């Protein structure tokens, strides 16, 4: 349903290095740049894109209060790998990988700019007959 989302940064090169590592376990890679301040990432397996950008209005980027980006993973192992890559790249923990409901396995972290992200895997339960 979502085409793309943007994540603000105050240090463009640091953010690109960070997200190169975070998106790699999801098959995410740099796909194109828009100007010199917006880098788009995508995966062949997962629809949608995420862009890292410095604010257009030239004001400092600030994380939103209550805002969060959710990254879809194809397995629990992929959730664990993204979370580990994020922490190794400089993220701070906002919630270790684990079951949040009987169908939702997720992990939470903040990037170096303070933006909150969740990487999650949904387990589809069979319908009762």
From TrEMBL:
Q: Known Pfam families for this protein? A: Glyoxalase (PF00903)
Xref: CDD domains: VOC_like
UniProt xrefs under Gene3D superfamilies: 2,3-Dihydroxybiphenyl 1,2-Dioxygenase, domain 1
The record places domain VOC at: 1-122
* Domain of life assignment: Bacteria
- InterPro entries found in the cross-reference section: Glyas_Bleomycin-R_OHBP_Dase, Glyas_Fos-R_dOase_dom, VOC_core
Protein's recorded name: VOC family protein
Species source reads Phenylobacterium deserti
